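#lab-general

N.A. 3:47 PM
ok so I finally got the sequence cleaned up, no stray characters, all 327 residues accounted for. can someone with queue access submit it? mine expired

B.Y. 3:52 PM
send it over

N.A. 3:53 PM
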Amino acid sequence: MAGYILRRIALMVPTLIGMTLMLFVVVRFAPGLTTAGGEQGENAKQARAALEEKMKKRLHLDQPLPVQYLMWLRDTATGDFGESVQYKKPVIDLIKERLPITLTLNIVSSILVYLIAIPGGMLASVRRGKTFDTAWSFFTLALFSLPIIWVGGMLLAFFSNPKYLGWFPVAGTHATNTDWMTAGQYATDFLWHISLPVLCLTYGGFAYLSKIQRAAMLDNLGMDYVRTARAKGLSPAVVMLRHVFRNSLLPMITIFAGILPGLLGGAVVVERIFSIKGMGDLVVTATNARDLPIVQAVAFIASVVTLASLLLADLCYVIADPRVSFE
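B.Y. 4:20 PM
back already:
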């Protein structure tokens, strides 16, 4: 196992370099990334000229492309992501400000998704063709079919509108003034504000994962080892939890590995709907403003997290299924 981990880490280095090279080329040749947009007038021209001068200085745009790439790779490897042209702050500071909010939203929603999807999929597979299976399948399919932008709008319209229920705040993650709050009140206020965004992030995810869990369970229920376990006199609960469920985790682990990089980027649509200043909002704003340092930094960190999540998924395969071996 240790040898496999070392080999994978060694392979991650050239893979990461290749990913950074693709990222660098795509960003550098994207149209309009060194202009300020379609503004008109003398002031707009001066603003574009000033922006282009800043970009040339900070991104070494006056150097040949290979030199630009090597200098950017050197700075990035040392944790220097540069300074945002739009916010005029170090990119790393912006990420530190926005990342905790995005991670909280996505981690809470991911936990809820798995807590609902796994038991629901298991019960649906055990009661295949029965009332619960039919109702659960219909319910999850209906949820999965609802577009998130429509659901977010409806949640705001009914649960945040004072003309209707008005139970939750309209935007943000905290009240305007929190100086008077104790730690408990501050945490409660935060949970109250993120309730609707978390709900918006959760409903579609557990609907999809529940179907994956059901299908994986049904595949394993027909295996010979399940019939052998039942013939030995093991209880249905032991057969399901110790044998069938454990061997059905591989698809869920694969999906979880794909979820991890998304925790960094955040749910762009949800953050925009509920006016949450997270990573998703930061990336969209930076892209619209042609703020290269932010775009490159977030994409680079996402690349590293992607490679790490794939390695973590491979290690989880061994834990979940002893038949998997990397020796």
